[in-house]
Amino acid sequence: MQQPLVTVITVTYNSAKFVRDTIESVLAQTYSPIEYIIADDHSRDNTWEIISEYNDPRIRAYQNEVNLGEYNNRNKAIDLAKGEYLLFIDGDDIIFPHGIGYFTEMMNLFPMAGMAIQKGYINNVLFPALLYPREALSNHYLGQTDLLSSSFASNFFRTAVIREVGKLNAQLATGDNDIRVKIAARFPVLFIAGWVSWPRETPGQAASRVTPDKLLAEFAAYTSTVMRQPSETIDKLLLEDIQRSVKRKIARYALREMLSGRPRKAGALLKKVGMDWKDVRQHYNFRPVSKDVLEKHDAINPFNRGFLYPARPLNE
What is the DSSP letter of 30? Predict the structure, then answer.
């Protein structure tokens, strides 16, 4: 049986300090059918010179003539992808030699999954575990242990799915969060055990510069967009609970800012998301009726759909 092609995308911008480690880690994969797209976003350091040293036939590298910005650069690379699966290993990340093979094996076992996300140990989930849209969203918005949140290097996409949901929203600073929620609302998500990629966290990264109020404003924006196009498996009660839980989070943040002597900052956020202080009072103590799917599980009875008990198609 022919193994599926996997597209690995490395986006770079002034990544000279780490990009060699990234490239070497991708080229060291034990899984053979890969194409490697390296997309440099007009770096000002010697990143492109380092990339140009590599002459491996699996590599397709380009440098943008002007800086497009992170998500526009990612989308350009997605358009070029030929693989059945797609993985971002950015210019400061590393993937271990067995990583792509492991991701691919897991996704091949769960053809209904739109993406896979690697996770560390959680004592009430037995990985691999497949969550259907209602379960993934209730966990993400209402749960104590949020499985959906992760680094981009921890996500393994079915290429057709990431294209179908509209790729990455370049208007957001948190476009990776947006795409995960979009996929989870329409396709089952597979959560797998272990860390086979290593997302490097360094001071000054783009994600570290996003302020809490901007995070919340974008959280509200992409949630609203996704909830207007829900999966048929997500009931109206859950949709209402999700929308009100987002408002509760914003209400609590705004009140903290107010009590900390920053009323203008609180007011600016409320205005941006279409709320006022009446909404703060209304939603501050909101309690959802819907429950996180993991809430009833523990170490004695872990969530288990995929290892001992295989997943069934969503329509069964």
Answer: S
Nearest to 116 by CA among 93, 136, 142, 97: 136
- All residues at 6 or more sequence positions from 89 whose CB lies less than 8 Å from its CB, including other chains: 8, 9, 10, 22, 25, 26, 95, 153, 197
Instruction: Render each residue's pLDDT in the chain as its tens digit; 316 residues.
Output: 789 999 999 999 999 999 999 999 999 999 999 999 999 999 999 999 999 999 999 999 999 999 999 999 999 999 999 999 999 999 999 999 999 999 999 999 999 999 999 999 999 999 999 999 999 999 999 999 999 999 999 999 999 999 999 999 999 999 999 999 999 999 999 999 999 999 998 776 666 678 999 999 999 999 998 888 666 678 889 999 999 999 999 999 999 999 999 999 999 999 999 999 999 999 999 999 999 999 999 999 999 998 777 666 554 4
Owning domain of residue 158: 6-199
Domain of 27, CATH number, reads 3.90.550.10
Joined together, the tokens standing for residue 173 give: 């600073």
Tell whether 310 is covered by a domain.
no
Q: By the 8 A CB rule, do 34 and 7 touch?
A: yes
Question: Could you tell me the pTM of the whole model?
Answer: 0.94
Reduced to 3 states (helix: H, G, I; strand: E, B; else coil), residue 167 is coil
Whether 174 and 254 map to the same domain: the answer is no
- Spell out the residues 6+ positions from residue 224 whose beta carbon is closer than 8 angstroms to its own: 243
In-domain check, residue 165: yes
**Domain contains 16:** yes
